[in-house]
Amino acid sequence: MGQQGGTSAILNPARVIPLAFLAGITAGTLLLMLPAARAGEGHAPFIVALFTATSALCVTGLTVVDTPSYWSGLGHLFILALAQVGGFGIMTGATLLGLLMSGRNRLSTRILAGAEMRSLDLGDVSGVVRIVVVATFSVEGVLALVMAADFWWLKGMPPLEALWYGLFHAVSAWNNAGFNLEGVSGASMAGDYPLLFALITGVVLGGLGFPVLYELRKEWRTPATWSIHTKLTVAGSTLLLLLGWMFVLAAEWGNKATLGGMGTGQALVNALFHSVMTRSGGFATFDMTAMHDETLALTHALMMIGGGSASTAGGIKVTTFFLLGFVALAEFRGHADANAFGRRIPVEVQRQALLIALLAVGTVGLGFLLLLMMSDLPFAFLLFDAISAFATVGLSTGVAAALPPEGQAVLVLLMYVGRVGTISVAAAVALHVGQPRYRYPEERPIIG
Questions:
Q1: Mean of pLDDT over the chain
Q2: Stated pTM of the model
Q3: 309 Rama class: left (phi>0) / alpha (psi -120 to 50) / beta
Q4: What DSSP element (H or E) covers 344?
C-alpha cells in the first residue's frame, strides 16, 4: 500500500509538469553549453545557457545575448527544439489536466470532459496527443511556407535559408516563444505586412488554446452552443485585442520613436501587432523603452492577463481575468451567484481564479523587489521585464541583458514559475477539493 501511495504521489498531474520542465531545462542548458552551439570560441557561460534554455522551453523569448549572432546554427536548432517541446508539452499537458479537472474523473485509458469542456470528449490520452500534434504541425507548416515565401521573394534569401527562417519563426509564433533571427524584429519588419500578419496569426491561434480551437473547428457556425470556456476566451481575447489596439494607436500616434514615424497604414498594422504580441507573442517592431508611460502601463496589464487556458500563452489567463470580472459584477449587483453567458460559475472555480491571480501578483511583486535590490536600472523597466518573464511574453526593455547574474537568475525563476505555476496550482487545487469534518463559527470582518 505504501509503495502504491508513493507512486501515486509522484505521478500526481500537479507535479508531473513542473518536474518535466525541470528535466527539460537541465537538458537544454547542457546542450547550449556545448562549444558547437555557440558561434564564437568556447562554450556559453552557465547562466547564459540556463537563461536561454529556460526562456526557450518556457516559450518566453527573453534573451541575455543576441540570438542571431551569439548562437551557431546548431544553437538555433536547439532553441527551436526546446520551444517546440515546451509548447507541445504545455498544450498537451494543460489540455489533459483541463479535461481531468472539468470531468473530475481518473486519467487512465479515457478522459471524459465535464460540463465546461463538453465538446472535448476526445477518448484516450493518445487521441488527445494525436490531435494536438496534427493541429501543431498543420498550422506551423502553413505559416512556415507563407513566411518562407516572404523571405525568399521579398527579402531575396536563398530558398533553403528562407525555408529555415520560415520554419523557425512559424514554430516561434505558434508556441508564443518570441525568439527571432536577424532581420525579424524592429523597424526592419515594420512594413513587411505578410510577415506581420503571419506572426499575428500564429500567436493568436496558439494563444487561444487547444480546447478552444477544437471546439471552434466543430461548432464555429453556432456560437450559442459553445462552452462557457470558449465564450470567455474568444470574447475576452477579442475585446482585449481591440482595446489594446485602439489605446496604442491613440497613445503612440504622435510618438516619432514608435508609431509617429510610420505612415498611416503601417501605424495601424503595427499598433495591432503590438496589441497581439503583449498577450505572450514577444515580437516587436519598435523599442519598448521609447513608448509613452501610459502605453507601458497598458502593456504591463495585457502581459499579466495573457492568453487562453491550455494554450502556449502565459499570464494569469483570459478566463481567470474575466471570470473575476463577472464575480465583481455580481458583488456590485448584490447577487448571490456569479453568472456568465447564462451559466452559474461554481464557487470553487471562483476561489481558484482568485488564488491564481493573487499568487501571480505576489510572485511578480517579490521578483520585482529582488530585482530592485540587485540593480539600479529604471523602476518601470525592471517591472516591465519582471512581468514579461512571469507572463512568458518575451518583450523586453533591455533589462534582462543588463542585469547581474543573480538578477538574471531571478528572471529564470519567474519564467519557470510563470510557465508551470498557474497550471500546477489550478490542477492541485481542483484535484484536492474537499470539506473538512468541522466548521468554525461564522463572524464577518469589516471589509473596505
A1: 86
A2: 0.87
A3: beta
A4: strand 343-344
